[in-house]
Amino acid sequence: MTIPLTRRTLLGATLAAPSLVHAQAAARLLVVGGGFGGATAASFARREYPWLDVTLVEQRQSYVTCPYSNRVLAGDLALPDITHGYEGLRAMGVRVIHDRAVHLDPVARRLRLGGGETLSYDRMILSPGIALRYEALEGYDEAASTRMPHAWIAADGAQITLLRRQLEAMPDGGVVGLVIPPNPYRCPPGPYERISLIASYLSKHKPRSKILALDAKDTFSKQALFQDAWQALYPGMIEWVSATNDGRVVRVDPEAMVLETEFGTHHRVDVANVIPPQTAAAIATEGELADSTGWVPVNPRTLESRIAPGIHVVGDAMFPGPMPKSGFLANSEAKAAVSAAAALLRGAAPPEPVFVNTCYSHIGPDYAISVANIFHADTGAGSFLEVPGSGGTSPRGGLPEQRRLEALHADGWYASITRDMFGS
Fold it and tell me: pLDDT-based confidence at 11, cuts 50/70/90?
């Protein structure tokens, strides 16, 4: 059989041979992206593999976390509470460059930055996050997001701040509309935590208001627990509409503040939070690392790109199979990827990875629920598998002390994981 010679097949053939780079005094580990995956990779590499020369490329001077941003919408926290700098990583010996990654050359193992600098590497940890598929929803684009914010890429906090101000300005008795995308997307329970915490704010300040959640799915993560809590804490305030019941939004009109579903129903709302479908970030898609799914396929043992060996992809940009796209898993994946990269640089076999996930969701200031899972690499199938019996969710029922403790555990998790990421 003759294989057509394309850029991708040529790249795959060029990179098929194993790397001959072994660790010297300072093998070069380049980390792209300074969020839950990238910041963790940089700090973990410096702590566990001090012989690595670690450089982190992150465009932003500080990082606003998506986890806990919903608590800013509720008024429980302020934006500075979820904003983190990179001084701790610098103190650990990480070279931090605030610039935009614009062109990746996996053959030459070089990355060009927006400012003109070109960085060479022996191994890369790529954790660029997501891009929004604006074109997937008629009428929605970047300009429309200034009227109907997505607030799904925290960036500098502008979108979170905009949505918060819109909620504050909405009259009592107004309607907040949420557009929820199909799977897969960043943080599966995130929209439903957002519904809950917007309801928490409204119940205190605008109790006659309503929330209309239009969903492109028929089921969602921790559904029974969320719906139990909505009935107990915010009765009559939240209407969730599944895809089967005409919840799939196909068009928006930012000027008229209208959400249109696939069956032609028009919903006029006062505030609209539109979360569009997503793909891996541009550096991955434009570099042809992503496949037809829009996400980057990886080797589950090493988290190396299947298209460009030497680049380990972690966090929301990679295709994780059954694993959710969560901050906790990005942290776990980053440590596994760094360990694999370090072993390969020394010519050793990478260790067997284990991926741990715990996802907390606040429903009120003293009320949280959680789900936990453990996954391992299924090298035979080339994917990931959940360890049997390892998962679980919070119990259902009227358990106020359980919910209060889980809220405290969630706060402890956030403080711990951000220290782990940023070294301070």
Answer: very low
The answer to whether the CB of 216 falls within 8 A of the CB of 243 is: yes
Residue 156 half-sphere exposure, CB side, CA atoms within 13 Å? 4
Q: What is the pLDDT of residues 200-215, one digit of tens each?
A: 999 999 999 999 999 9
| Residue 172 belongs to domain with CATH number | 3.50.50.60
Residue-wise pLDDT tens digits, 124-161: 999 999 999 999 999 999 999 999 999 999 778 999 99
Within 8 A by CB and 6+ apart from 168, the residues are none
Asked if 404 and 367 count as a contact pair (C-beta separation under 8 A), the reply is yes
Distances (CA, A) of 207 to 191, 203, 204, 212, 239: 21, 4, 6, 15, 15
411 vs 295: CA distance, rounded Å: 31
Q: Which two tokens stand for residue 122?
A: 């022996």
Phi, psi of 12 (to 5 degrees): -65, -40
Of all helices (H) and strands (E), which one includes residue 170? none
Residue 183 lies in a domain: yes
**The total number of structural domains that make up the chain:** 1
Count of residues in the chain = 424
What CA–CA distance (Å, rounded) separates 400 from 406?
Answer: 10
CA distances from 206 to 24, 160, 221, 240, 412 (A): 62, 19, 28, 19, 30
N- to C-terminal Cα separation, the chain: 56
- Global confidence as pTM: 0.92
DSSP 305: B
The answer to whether position 165 is within a domain reads: yes
Q: What is the C-alpha separation between 46 and 32, in angstroms, rounded? A: 15
Residues 166, 169: Cα–Cα separation, whole Å: 5
The answer to the question of residue 169 being in a domain is yes
Parent domain of 171: 140-277
Cβ burial, residue 79 (10 Å; 0-12/13-18/19+): middle
